[in-house]
Design a protein that fits this description.
Blueprint: E1 12-13, E2 16-17, H1 18-25, H2 39-59, E3 74-78, H3 86-91, E4 95-100, H4 103-116, E5 121-124, E6 135-141, H5 150-159, E7 161-172, H6 176-189, H7 205-214, E8 218-228, E9 232-236, E10 242-248
Parallel strand pairs: 3-4, 3-6, 4-5, 6-7
Antiparallel strand pairs: 1-2, 7-10, 8-9, 8-10
Length: 250
């Protein structure tokens, strides 16, 4: 899947891989173009925002009817790109911090948020950039497959999650379907920029939930992101292509 993250180059500093950050930094100027290099993320966003809203309402016992269910809460989006998720979180009422390894993405994110009249704190760096801070909601969508050390990355996410908080992570599954759809086809025809993914770095749901449990988190929902030509991306029980996981800290 196209990534919200800006990964690193094959030098790694903390969670960040420099080559990956450079790859995504080159896409910064085009991030908000729904027909550009990040078009796949724009197509993904409605489904994953619907999932996120449902997870928020379930976790904090919301009615699902208010416009700002995150009012009075803090949110951290790790691998925020140019703000495709951070801005909706701000509109849901959260005080939002976005972190991304590519300074170019942070520049684009700040400019776009300012133009929208949204106050979002953006920081260039990896999850280490917010060490010592905690947030009610921690999100990291399509990012963990690009980091230097997934276990250390999850530890960083867990460290940023406040007691009683909610975490949402998404990533491609390591299956024959994801290799065919996301690398052979999508990257092959340019729907996703070439070189975005390394299939060997994809995590299965069991692997990702194992890393979350190792940090003392409780697993909630595990749902798939499926695609059909007729309906586009939808939340599904089929996790073979891509999936989302919620986790919480008691």
């Amino acid at each position: 899947m196209a990534s919200d993250a800006t990964p690193d180059v094959q030098t790694a500093s903390g969670s960040v891989v420099a080559a990956e950050a450079a790859h995504f930094g080159k896409l910064a100027a085009d991030w908000w173009n729904p027909h550009g290099s990040s078009a796949m993320l724009h197509r993904l966003n409605p489904a994953r925002l619907g999932f996120l809203r449902e997870a928020i309402d379930t976790h904090w016992h919301g009615a699902g009817t208010g416009f700002t269910p995150l009012a009075g809460r803090t949110a951290l989006d790790v691998g925020c790109g140019a703000g495709l998720l951070a801005e909706p979180l701000a509109r849901l009422g959260a005080t939002v911090t976005g972190v991304d390894a590519a300074p170019e993405n942070i520049g684009a994110a700040r400019a776009h948020a300012e133009a929208q009249g949204l106050a979002v704190e953006y920081i260039a760096g990896g999850v280490e950039a917010v060490a010592g801070r905690q947030f009610d909601l921690v999100t990291s969508l399509e990012v963990i497959e690009h980091v230097a050390d997934p276990a250390a990355f999850v530890a960083g996410l867990a460290g940023a999650l406040a007691p009683g908080g909610l975490m949402v992570v998404s990533t491609p599954n390591r299956t024959p379907l994801s290799r065919l759809a996301m690398i052979t086809l999508a990257e092959g025809v340019g729907a996703i920029p070439r070189g975005t993914h390394d299939w060997n770095k994809f995590l299965t749901p069991d692997e990702l939930t194992g890393l979350l449990k190792a940090q003392g988190l409780t697993i909630g929902a595990v749902r798939g992101l499926a695609f059909s030509p007729r309906h586009g991306f939808t939340i599904s029980d089929d996790t073979r292509l891509d999936y989302l996981v919620t986790a919480s800290r008691g």
